[in-house]
Amino acid sequence: MDEQYEISLEDEIKMLEEYNKAYKLGKKDYQARLVKGETPTLKVLDEILPARGAYSERSLGLVQIPIDQIVGTKTEGRSNAFAGNFMPILRENTEFAYKWSCLAKSHVNEGIRDPIKAYEYMNQFYVEEGNKRVSVLKYYDAVSVPGFVTRILPPKTEEKENKIYYEFIDFYEVSKVNYIWFTKPGSFAKLQSLVGKDEKEVWTDDDKLTFSSVYSRFVMEYEAAGGKKLTITPGDAFLAFLTIYGYEALCKKTANELKELVNKSWEEFTLLEHENEIDLKMDPNREKKPLISRLLTGSKKLKIAFIYAKTPGSSAWTYAHELGRLHLEQMFPEEVTTVCYENIVPELAEKAITDAIQKGCNMIFTTTPAFVQASVQTAIANPDIRILNCSLNTSHRYIRTYYARMHEAKFLMGAIAGAMAENDRLAYIADYPIFGTIANINAFALGAAMINPRAKIYLEWSSLKDDDLGKVMDRIREKDISVVSGRDMVIPEDASRYFGLYRMENGTPRNLAMPLWHWGKFYEELIRTVMNGAWKYDDSSAEKKAINYWWGMSSQVVDVICSKNIPNGTQHLVELLKETIMRGEFNPFSGVLYSQNGIIQENPQGSLSPEEIITMNWLCDNVIGTIPKSGQLNDQAKSVTLQQGVEKGL
To answer: Model's pTM, two decimal places?
Structure first.
């Protein structure tokens, strides 16, 4: 029960004035809710809960309860004295008003320290004892109140809110942080990773204090800039902010620095309001623009920088982009000059990009997802520079991203493998469990199944910790598999033939086909959009979204090269399939689709949307293997999957 206090007549008059102010706030909220057709008084937990027996209860002990998350009462009897914002709606001449005023006086003089009793349901709190204390604390803008809390656990479902709630429970177990909330699944796990913690690593008291400080400072600046007008939660905005600037860096920012960064990054927050944040550009924009637009845009020559994580000689991925850079120089000898930065680790990416800008580069390609953070930070600081990052499903307003629909080529590779397999067993060696990779695996599996319905694809990963290619190949040999899909391209400094699709013959790989990333064609087409004035038209829609170029075979940025070791009939089939994909007549992910856990698509005439292909986190039913979690990966793979990993959707 709320305690009563004796107060003087003078204090009583003063505190009744405060009560009347609270009363007016309550009546205003009451009327506003009535107009909207909402219940004008407090929510009642007993009216919200599912049927008894459908949920369980768990005592959390004494908890510091965020005031903003207290939304109602446990029982109906306590609800009608308050408006929906917890302000009082009973007249000042009532005993209720006197008790409220006494509590207000006590809070002003001493602070309310007596714990309340409350129930927590879906991370919102409902008061059992202490409603007036909560009302007073809300009136005086308190941050939290101590309380003995009982958590009510609903049954697990596939509903979005339910999934987020159970992710919160896992996060709360290690952090005991209950004042941050998200609207998207996977966010709590991402937060745990971004603050530098392993999946189940427990937070220390110092961790909690540091996080509370930086989060509260961010929320203050975010709301001062207009954050309350956005439909996202402060947690959503904070996670986006954290992704750009990093946790350690934010902890060191002054109030002025934090305010400046929040204001400069505002479009990142407004972007989160869209259900679909990414505007996928599936083909180059070849629309001719007015002559004056082309003249104005093309008057300035382009100096382009390419930022590489490795060297072209040591990395097939970097080599493919280097070929693209050289292609640009050949295609535009007068209009374009290029420079490249090699062996750049993520920690030095921002420095490399800044150096390129200082040397006059007005367009920059960062060629790995690991450079997303540095790309966005630099783009925010240099809004006149075009910066693009090679990644998929990345939603940022200040940069554009690009990737290729490699799954189209992988489908053809799977068809070849299915035709060449001697015992229905195929191996697929994947690198990182990131967006795009899972689509590649499944497209390969579907292509193999189309030619050979009995084909099984044994999935191996080259990025697991305490593992290497030698161990992977040993496991493949043990399974008596001869046809293998390995890394996509040859590494110039490596004489190995273990790339593309190959068949093991007497312990030696015999190359059958190779998927091709034709980045030169991509860069050429994109530069033409800049030169002909079409670049700005890609961002002309009313809803400002993140722009992601995702081109495929129809744009000639991916292809398959077949060797003479493939029978003529199989080569002819591959060409026919390629033509249907290029003309848009066939989607590798069409028809009835089954995953390892059941049916994905049951409509024989249906096809997965581009968004469903990009974000898929399941494996086809003819794939033997799993998608590894972050803790199973080596350090390099972890850094890439932090930005692009699909684990959050598992």
So the answer is: 0.84
